[in-house]
């Protein structure tokens, strides 16, 4: 229902961000045929709910509008729908209603963790905002595994961050990389990594921002998603001649268990993100940092070529 100067009128509410005539939220009076536009999803400011079933929608394009629901669950359902569209289309880290916050988003805010934005976005943000300054890092959720996180850290003498895996273990706690030790909370694990004895140098965290334009904004018109390529697509994408790959297209997972370790090189799992929004799982052979015999490295490079 909607209250208009003391007169209560029944309405139907429709939500469609892609409606050609009235994108976003609109309503229709009972017995009428003309829809009335409230606002687009982008023009939503915040939503307030009360225990009596009243919901207030604040918008950029007009005065607040109030609705009265017979069912509290129906009111919560609409708030959830609008909040979901807003987070997927405008600001992924922002909840429209403080009265009904998203629990998972609150947990991410508490540990300054990004959602499953992917390595490419994280690397780009570190380069753009901090120019890959050593010690700067981003913590993010895995885009493939629910209980996994990735820590992207800018290191000395490297144009790309190094990625480490953090895993939530069955039974509780977190583990870092291939270590067996468990930490009771993510905060405890990050405190260990910031200690002088840590194998990783952490200086400054780049937290998620409501202004991030990440791949999580699935409902934006200009989507930037990478889809896994199937076998036929992989064969077509792989070049038939020698091909030089831009290092920015490669994502190396050093936090994963090594696939193979030789005398002067180590093989890691990785991803090659192609410009046509496709990604290929790959194996990356990397020279060991403590091996400095150039002749052997050049000989091995010749064999690879």
UniProtKB/TrEMBL annotation:
Give the source's domain of life in one word.
Answer: Eukaryota
- What is this protein's record name? SH2 domain-containing protein
Against Pfam families, the record matches this protein to: SH2_1 (PF21990)
Q: Would you kindly state one Gene Ontology biological process term found in this protein's UniProt entry?
A: cell surface receptor signaling pathway via JAK-STAT
For this UniProt entry, the molecular function terms from Gene Ontology, in alphabetical order, are:
cytokine receptor binding; non-membrane spanning protein tyrosine kinase activity
**Boundaries of every SH2 domain copy:** 110-199
Q: What is the lineage of its organism?
A: Eukaryota, Metazoa, Ecdysozoa, Arthropoda, Hexapoda
Matching entries from Gene3D superfamilies are given as: SH2 domain
This entry carries the following GO cellular component terms, namely: cytosol
Q: Which residues form a coiled coil?
A: none
Organism field = Cuerna arida
């Amino acid at each position: 229902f909607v209250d208009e100067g003391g007169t209560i009128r029944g309405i139907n509410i429709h939500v469609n961000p892609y409606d050609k005539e009235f994108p976003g939220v609109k309503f229709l009076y009972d017995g009428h045929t003309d829809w009335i536009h409230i606002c687009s999803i982008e023009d939503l400011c915040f939503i307030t709910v009360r225990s009596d079933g009243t919901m207030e929608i604040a918008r950029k394009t007009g005065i607040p509008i109030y609705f009265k629901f017979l069912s509290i669950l129906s009111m919560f359902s609409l708030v959830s729908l609008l909040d979901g569209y807003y987070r997927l289309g405008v600001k992924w880290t922002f909840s429209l209603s403080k009265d009904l916050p998203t629990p998972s988003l609150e947990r991410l805010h508490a540990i300054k963790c990004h959602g499953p934005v992917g390595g490419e976005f994280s690397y780009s943000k570190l380069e753009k905002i901090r120019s890959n300054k050593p010690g700067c890092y981003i913590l993010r959720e895995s885009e493939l595994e629910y209980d996994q996180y990735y820590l992207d850290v800018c290191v000395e003498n490297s144009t790309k961050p190094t990625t480490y895996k953090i895993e939530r273990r069955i039974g509780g706690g977190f583990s870092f990389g291939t270590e067996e030790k468990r930490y009771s909370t993510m905060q405890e694990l990050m405190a260990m990594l910031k200690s002088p004895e840590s194998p990783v140098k952490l200086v400054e965290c780049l937290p998620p921002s409501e202004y991030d334009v990440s791949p999580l904004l699935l409902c934006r018109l200009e989507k930037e998603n990478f889809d896994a390529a199937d076998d036929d697509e992989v064969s077509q994408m792989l070049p038939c001649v020698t091909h030089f790959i831009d290092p920015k297209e490669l994502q190396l997972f050093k936090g994963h268990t090594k696939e193979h370790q030789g005398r002067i090189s180590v093989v890691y799992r990785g991803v090659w993100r192609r410009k046509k929004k496709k990604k290929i799982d790959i194996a990356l052979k990397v020279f060991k940092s403590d091996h400095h015999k150039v002749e052997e490295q050049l000989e091995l490079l010749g064999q690879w070529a």
